[in-house]
Amino acid sequence: MKMAKSAQVPPPKRPLSAFFLFRDERYPIVKAENANIKITEITKIISEQWRQQSDEIKKTYQDRFNASKKIYDQEMKDYIAKHGKPVRVQKKIRKGKGEKAEKKGKSEKKHKKEKKKAKRVKKEKTNGASKDKTE
Predict the structure, then answer these.
(1) What's the pTM value of the predicted model, to 2 decimals?
(2) Cα separation of 17 and 66, whole Å?
(3) Cα–Cα–Cα angle for 118, 130, 125, nearest 5°?
(4) Residues 6+ apart with CB under 8 A from 23
(5) What's the N-to-C CA distance of the chain in angstroms?
(6) Using DSSP, how many helices (H) and how many strands (E) does the chain show?
């Protein structure tokens, strides 16, 4: 029996990478210093700061990631033992707007026509072969 989506237990979330741990610490500081800039610009500033950090500092974040990863791996192992392998849900593909949608629609129609034609030809061949056998 399948469970309802709300009844399914979600799998554990993956740990944040070393950079994202750094980013989460730096974001409020950079945001306070640059209140009127976009989030993309803030991320660029933080990524530049990350590149300028020494290997020693980066290692502390990497160690935190590794510790979180060990916990995650154990939680995932327990999850799989209890609930089975998690099912990945594919995102719905949206049709584009304008020309892309038109082109896509035309190619789908063309594909359907070709499929019907191939079916018809196959049917004619099998009908033709059965007529030859009866004669």
Answers:
(1) 0.60
(2) 9
(3) 20
(4) 43, 46, 47, 50
(5) 55
(6) 4, 0
